[in-house]
Write a structure and sequence with these properties.
- Helices cover 29% and strands 24% of the residues.
- The chain is an alpha+beta fold and 241 residues long.
- It is elongated.
- A five-stranded mixed sheet has the order 3-10-9-5-7, with no helix packed on it.
- Helix 2 runs antiparallel to helix 3.
- The chain contains five helices and ten strands; from the N terminus they run E-E-H-H-H-H-H-E-E-E-E-E-E-E-E.
- A hairpin with a 4-residue loop joins strand 9 and strand 10.
- The longest helix is centred in the middle third of the chain and has 33 residues.
Length: 241
């Protein structure tokens, strides 16, 4: 309005005045003030309005895979939101099944992978497992005591109870050597040794466990022989109850 038309701090004429009673608050949904359009901005009608409602339901209940549309086609009376709920439930079951499958794959993978402790145990066993596969009985012949006795292993135990003794041995020669650990044929079955075969190392001890489990009272004697292609070591074993 031209300033010459202002009277008493107000408009002196209402020639260009446009009356309107809506205000959109600046959200852009009421159109331009004074354009004669009241209420929310109209975007199409009819089918477009139905699609808008359908999309609102999809946005509210989840992403549509088309299952809800199939439900509405097969049952026109079903509520749109209910159809979408059923579709979401089906989608959730599918996602759950996929997640369960992935979890099982991960569990199976973890089960197939050795743990650090298992790796350590496997490394600790290295040198006990044999380096070569051959018939030790054929190679070494019958188990017989050697001419020299390394020592005497004495154990005492009640009948059918187990007593143990630890024995540590290295390969006195360079590298590895496959061994056989066994008792002479005249030694009673009350004596056991573990491991009974494997490989001796030069730098690290191999741990043998000698077990005595008497089946009856008395003194039970015999000989333990540990031998390789290069040496034979013999211990006298004496068990009592």
């Amino acid at each position: 309005m031209d300033k010459s038309l202002i009277q008493n701090s107000g408009p002196g004429t209402f020639e260009d005045f446009v009356d309107f009673d809506e205000f959109d608050g600046g959200d852009g949904q009421m159109g331009v003030a004074g354009d004669g359009q009241k209420g929310l901005e109209k975007i199409g009608g009819g089918a477009a309005l139905f699609n808008s409602k359908s999309m609102s339901a999809k946005n509210a209940w989840g992403t549509s895979s088309g299952y809800a549309d199939q439900l509405r086609e097969s049952d026109p009376e079903i509520d749109t939101a209910r159809a979408q709920q059923l579709e979401n439930w089906a989608n959730q079951q599918e996602v759950r099944a996929k997640n369960q499958g992935l979890k099982e794959m991960a569990d199976n993978f973890d089960a197939a992978q050795p743990s650090e402790e298992e790796n350590w145990r496997q490394l600790a066993k290295f040198g006990v497992e044999r380096n070569e596969e051959f018939d030790m009985d054929a190679e070494f012949g019958p188990v017989t005591a050697g001419a020299d006795i390394e020592g005497v292993i004495e154990l005492k135990s009640a009948v059918t109870k187990v007593a143990t003794h630890d024995l540590y041995l290295k390969n006195p020669y360079m590298g590895f050597a496959d061994f056989r650990a066994a008792f002479t044929s005249d030694t009673p079955m009350d004596w056991y040794v573990e491991p009974n075969e494997g490989s001796l190392m030069q730098k690290d001890d191999t741990h043998f466990t000698i077990k005595f489990k008497p089946q009856g009272p008395g003194l039970i004697e015999g000989y333990l022989v540990i031998e390789t292609e290069d040496f034979k070591k013999t211990w006298k074993v004496m068990g009592s109850t």
